[in-house]
Amino acid sequence: MKKKIFSIMLVVAMVGTMLAGCGSKEDKKESKGNKNSITVLVESGSPAEALAKETAASFEEETGCKVVIDAVAYTGMYDKLSTEIKAKQAAHDVACMDVVWLAAFADAIEPINDADTSDFLPTLQDSGTIDGNLLGYPMWVNAKVLIYRKDLISEDKVPKTWEEYQALAKELKTDDMSGTTVFGSGSDAVCSFLDFACQAGAEGLVFDKEGNVNITDQAYVDALNFMVENANADYTPADSLATAATESQELFTNGKVAMQLNWSHQYPAAVEALGADKVGCAPMIGGSAGVGATTGPWYECVMKNSENKEMAKKYVEFMYDHNADYMDLTLKIAGRTSVYEEAGKVAGNEHTTAVLETLGAEQSQARPMVTTWSQIEEVLIGVVESSLGEADVNDTLEAAKTQIELIM
Questions:
Q1: Correct CATH for 37-141+296-335 of 3.40.190.10, 1.10.3210.10, 3.10.310.40, 3.40.50.720
Q2: How far is residue 164 from each of residues 152, 199, 286, measured CA to CA in Å?
Q3: What's the rounded Cα separation, in Å, for the pair 335 and 138?
Q4: Do the domains spanning 37-141+296-335 and 144-292+364-407 agree at the CATH topology level?
Q5: For residue 113, which phi and psi values (nearest 5 degrees)?
Q6: How far is CA 116 from CA 99, 120, 264, 326, in A?
Q7: What is the torsional sign of CA 189, 194, 199, 202?
């Protein structure tokens, strides 16, 4: 998942933050140690910032507690949390976290094991739990689905398997349009690789149940070969190594690609760009083990060193109760099954139904909960790039396994 997708919207909200001084030093000084105030860390320009601002007044009216919003760019959030945790300073009472950070900060997060998880979307309880402790309420989740030109692809021809997908991509190729794309760049490439590994039968992503590195298993070989076959075929653009979610979406909305396996939030954007009569979506495709995908959830977490922990807990519960409000924002993604079920009844939200079916598939899995994920991801980026660059798939995976074992 390319993290920058959560930072491309809501410029007005960002400007409002600067004008109102949300997250300013003065606000944070006022909130520290003040039982009538909590400070919440969010990604600037993200749905988390927008909804936090929209609901702050309601929370204060309900509880008497002021919400101070500290909006920080994605690239600075991890460092900011890490610094305050090491210093044992409670600069934030609540933090909105990418799932890949949970393992690194687990000891600094207050567990919420009494939470009702019955309405969590599939995979979200598991991906938010470390050593038996649930570390936060899900805010939203993203997974890849099939987005296609329904004016070119009839409903009965929408592909469900790797073989159907490749055959249709070949059929749809013209001089002016590619059949589909391959993500060969950055973290999106890793997520695609893991998606296909799920579909090929991987049991545990990168690590098996015993904690052993398993990326030389046949499922990973099959996944990489599938990516290489598609990248080398004439039905995909020649620059797969420079293609990720944003580039693929641009090709699709410019009429240069007939279908893509992209993050679900790209569907509403495509509908807006091309019109509902031209864009359809369906669950992720399946390999030999069936449909599967890896997920990209975010969680709202209470910090263990908070000086106003009880109010922080009330806040994350309050925001979970308002989870449906995320559907009113541009990305149209959330974290509750009931929210997706209701949203799917409304035209333009078909991606929510596709996500529900994809996440409900047996092979859909979360990325591993390890503190060294950022280093491992860099190794996996190299795996995809090398393989698409014609390196031997088996040799590349063997070398990567050794690297990951050294990291661990």
A1: 3.40.190.10
A2: 15, 14, 10
A3: 5
A4: yes
A5: -70, -10
A6: 19, 9, 26, 20
A7: positive
Tell the burial category of 78 from Cβ atoms under 10 Å away from its Cβ (0-12, 13-18, 19+).
middle
Classify burial at 126, counting beta carbons within 10 Å of its beta carbon; exposed 0-12, middle 13-18, buried 19 or more: middle
Residue of 313, 299, 286, 367 whose CA lies nearest to 96: 299
- The one-letter amino acid at 32: K
User: If you ran DSSP here, which 8-state letter would residue 72 be given?
Assistant: E
Mean pLDDT of 240-252: 97
| Domain range list for the chain | 37-141+296-335, 144-292+364-407
Question: What backbone torsions phi and psi does residue 122 show, to the nearest 5 degrees?
Answer: -50, 140
Task: Determine the pLDDT at residue 17.
Answer: 35
- Hey, what CATH topology would domain 144-292+364-407 get? D-Maltodextrin-Binding Protein; domain 2 (3.40.190)
Tens of pLDDT along 297-314? 999 999 999 999 999 999
Distance between CA atoms of residues 290 and 223, nearest Å: 13
**Rg of the Cα atoms in the chain:** 21
Pairing of strands 286-287, 298-302: unpaired
pLDDT digits (tens, 9 = 90+) for 47-90: 999 999 999 999 999 999 999 999 999 989 999 999 989 888 77
pTM of the model: 0.87
